[in-house]
Amino acid sequence: MDWQQFWHTVTTPRVVASYRLTFGAALIGAIINAGFGLLTAWVLTRYQFPGKRLIDALVDLPFALPTAVAGIALTAIYSTNGWVGSLLAPYGIKVAFTPLGVVVALTFIGLPFVVRTVQPVLEDLEQEVEEAAASLGASRWQTFRKIISPAIFPALLTGFSLAFARAIGEYGSVIFIAGNMPMKSEITPLLIITKLEQFDYAGATAIAVVMLVISFVLLLTINLLQWWANQRNKNGA
Amino acid sequence: MHISKSVNQYQSRTQQKRALAEPAWVRNLLILITLAFLTLFLFLPLAAVFSEALRKGWQVYISAIVNEDALSAMKLTFIAAAIAVPLNLVFGVAAAWAITKFNFTGKSILITLIDLPFAVSPVIAGLIYVLMFGLQGWFGEWLLDHDIKIIFAIPGIVLATIFVTFPFVARELIPLMQAQGKEEEEAGLVLGASGWQIFWRITLPNIKWGLLYGVILTNARAMGEFGAVSVVSGHIRGLTNTMPLHVEILYNEYNYAAAFAVASVLALLALLTLVFKTLIEWQTARANQSAQIQE
User: Fold this and answer.
1) Number of C-beta neighbours around residue B62 at 10 A
2) Which residue among A2, A60, A167, B130 is buried most deeply as judged by most CB within 10 Å?
3) Using CB atoms, which residue from A77, A140, A166 is nearest to B45?
4) A18 neighbors A187 (Cβ within 8 angstroms)
5) Which of A21, A199, A92, A177 is nearest to B248 (CA)?
6) Is B135 exposed, middle or buried (CB count within 10 Å of its CB: 0-12, 13-18, 19+)?
7) Cβ of B252: how many Cβ atoms within 10 Å?
8) Which residue in A74, A170, A205 is closest to B127 by CB distance?
9) Regarding the domain with residue range A3-232, which homologous superfamily does it belong to in the CATH classification?
10) Which residues of chain A have pLDDT under 50?
11) Percentage above 90 pLDDT, chain B
12) Are A211 and B124 a contacting pair at CB < 8 A?
């Protein structure tokens, strides 16, 4: 395969559409997980409520549950006759077999990363600092914004990038719920497998190389951001 | 006088509470949102696996599991895990030991390499093995001449499983062993213990819970891996089908009840993993507490 063939393979519209879906859905999933993961970690470390220990243990389910099982289970729930899908259908919202379904699957598999990176930091946070802020007249929201959030930001970013990286490469849970329509809901790892099944090894490798390069650049950027956040945190303290 | 003092105390205490905790309605709202999110993304999928599996009754459920193809898929899954877990256990301990107890050049490269399987898509991991050992691969011709099959055969599945589960034990042990330092090992050395004695009597007891944790995570991933195994397996029924692949085949044949039945076995294994994991966490928390009290 020469350079021109390589370029042609990795820039056909169907392949480009798959990059957009893979990286876009992974990004949205990671953002959802950053928000709700932070919330979950906060609720689990700060509040008491019945069933808390059970929920804490179950947060790791996406790590333990095989991705294929997660895929068919999510499809069963979010298809138009499923438990959740049937509630959304009257409003014209379709989740399974659309790009939205891909986002749902990628949110599921990335869920524990943010919770498990932020949780220990929240646990180790010293109560005295918050007390000091409160005694100096800070409101709870001010304390959260100025004291707590800078302390947990690096961990949040780490969790976000782990969830993002995992979501980019994910295959098992996505292929069931995505519907895999070319140009619409077909992820890049699936294209690699399709090429392999047609014995187009060169084509599969070319797409894999592009995927590796893009994820490498993205992770490098996130690492730089993290370094910068740490640096700023250190200078601030 | 006395009363006013206690009132003052009470007032300052509620003020402090207000500044250190959110109002009750905020707290309850946050708990509710969290529970709603976790229900949509965790609890419902888990419940769906079992409800779909039993939709057509126990008879269908049992026959989907006690069936030749399903049993051979289970057997292959256990074989792959039985090879991958011990190998990665030995490798993980050796790597963590080398990284935390010694200094050598290329250490940071080794740490990066250990993390590689986490960063690479499982599909690409499988592809790498096809490119190496497949018919058109680097070693393809040589393997063909010597009548060795790796791709679309059991060795390929085992290799792919080893690759994706490579980092778990080492990742679990490295921070633990770093935190423990090497004073205890050095004390053993000064007192004349041999290398093996130091390992069995000092290092291993110190890391046993972390090690078990890593092994459990390795096992869970080994039994559940889909993407990498899917690329190298060839999906030959009764021969190169693991349990997750069997779930896919049944599902694609619209045999949903059977697919979910096999999936429910995997889900039970996952729940068992979480139980073990939680027990170990409680155990280590208790050990830490008693260590702190002793200090």
Assistant:
1) 11
2) A167
3) A77
4) yes
5) A177
6) middle
7) 11
8) A205
9) MetI-like (1.10.3720.10)
10) 237
11) 54
12) yes
Residues of chain B neighbouring A111 (CB-CB closer than 8 A): 41-42
Smallest CA–CA distance, residue A150 to chain B, in Å, is 17
Test A219 with B19 for CB contact under 8 angstroms.
no
Q: Which residue has the higher pLDDT, B138 or B269?
A: B269
Best mutation target among B30, B41, B77 (most A Cβ atoms within 10 Å) is B41
Q: Is the pLDDT of residue B12 over 80?
A: no
Contact A134 B217 (CB under 8 A): no
CA–CA separation, B168 vs A181, rounded Å?
Answer: 35
Q: Which residues of A are less than 8 Å from B271 in CB distance?
A: 64
Task: Give the three-state DSSP class for A72.
Answer: helix
More confident residue, A145 or B6: A145
Instruction: Kindly list the residues from chain A whose CB atom is less than 8 angstroms away from the CB atom of residue B253.
Output: none
B274/A140 touch (CB, cutoff 8 Å), yes or no:
no
The token pair that represents B96 in the structure block? 């963590």
Structure token digits, residue A105 = 């699957």
Surface-to-core class of residue B234, CB atoms within 10 Å of its CB (0-12 exposed, 13-18 middle, 19+ buried):
middle
Write the DSSP symbol of residue B234.
-
| Residue from B70, B247, B266, B42 nearest A172 by CA | B247
What is the C-alpha separation between A180 and A14, in angstroms, rounded?
Answer: 12
Q: Among B78, B118, B274, pick the best mutation site for testing chain A contact (most A Cβ within 10 A).
A: B274
* B38–A67 CB contact, under 8 Å: no
- Angstrom CA distances, B15 to A125, B22, B100, stand at 21, 12, 48
Name the token pair of B238: 């009764």
ipTM of the complex: 0.90
